[in-house]
Amino acid sequence: MAVFRVLHRWIGLSVVPIFFVTCLTGLALVYQKGIVRQMVTPDAVLPDQYGVQQVGAELEQLMAMPQFHSDALIKAPNAEEPYWWIRRPGGDKQLFRIGDLQQYEQGVWILPVLEFARHLHIELLSGLVGEVLLLYVGLMTLLLGFTGIWLWWPQRRGFHWRWVIPPRRRLKLKSFLRLHSQSGIVLLPMFFVVPLTASVMMFQKVRNALTAAPVVATEMVDYAEVSNGQIAAALKLSVDSIENSWPTYIRLLPGDVPTAKFRLRLEDEWHPNGRTNIVVDLGAMAITDLQDVRQARPLKQVLNQMYPLHSSYGMPLFYSILTALVGVGSLWLLVTGTGSWLRVNLRQNQFQRSKLQLAEKTG
Predict the structure, then answer these.
(1) What is the pLDDT of residues 196-221, one digit of tens each?
(2) Which neighbouring-strand residues pair with 251?
(3) What letter does residue 162 receive in the DSSP assignment?
C-alpha cells in the first residue's frame, strides 16, 4: 500500500503543470463552437434548402477571393457551424457568411485566442516534443487512476456524497485527502475515457511523426489555372459517390496535376468531420483515391472514434456536459491532491522541528 501511495503522489506531482494546462484549454475547446456562435456568428443559421449545389457554387466564389490561397484548408458549413471558414497553415481562421460570403468581423478577436488554446492543448506550442510530453501525461494520468482505485478500495465503506462536492464552509487542508479520494472515484469512468482517448491519439501522432518519410517540397497548382466550375463539379462527384454524406474539409493538393481532396461525414457518423476521404483529378474529373470509412478495418474504425469521445464534438449534449465536468473535476482533483501533499509536508516539517527542539533541550 505504501508503494502505491508514493507512486500515486510522485506521478501526480510530475504531471501537475501540464495537466493543469490541458484541463484549462480542454474546457475552452469543448465549447469553442458555442463560444464562436455567441461571440462571432450569433445570427448564423443553415438554410433549410441548403444543398451540395449551393455549397459548390459558394466554394467557387470563395476560392476566387483575394483572401484565398491554394494551401488553405476550407471547411464547408454544417448544422453546428453554419458558416464557411478558411485557415492557412500557421494562420488564424477567417469566417464567412453563407450566401453573400461576407467575412465576419464581430468578436473575431476570440478566434486567435481559441487557436492558441488549441495548439497549446494538442502540442504545448512545441511540436513533437510537446506531443511526447502530452503522451507521457496521458499515460501517467491513467496510472494515477489505477493507483487511486487501489488506495481508495480499503476505505470504500466510508464513501459519502458530501465529500464529493466542495463544502460551502471554508476548506481546510485536513479534509483535502478525503475530498480528493471520494471525488476521484466518482469521476473515474469518464476520467479514464478522456486520458485514454488522448493517449491513443497522441501515440498515433508521435508514431506517424517518427516514421513518416521525408517531405518532398512540391509547388501548389495555381487555382487560377483551374477552369470555372471544376471544383463544384468535383465536389458533387465526391458527394454523389458516397450516399447520405456531407462535405467537411476541402483542400487543393500540391503536384503537377490540379487535384482536390474532399472529406465527407456520413449521416450517422460520430466523428464531426467524417473520416471518408476522396481525391479528385480536376482535369480528368475522375476519382483517383477513395477511402470509405465503412470499409476500414475494425481497429481503424475504433481509432476513428477516439476524437469524438475525447472532444465530445458530434456527441449528444449530455456527453459534452460530462466531458466538461471531467475537466472541472480534474482541476478539483489537482487542487485537493496538491493540498493534501502540502499538508503531509507541513506535518513532516513540524515533526522534524519538534525532534530538533527536543534534542536541543535534552542535549
Answers:
(1) 999 999 999 999 999 876 756 566 66
(2) 261
(3) G
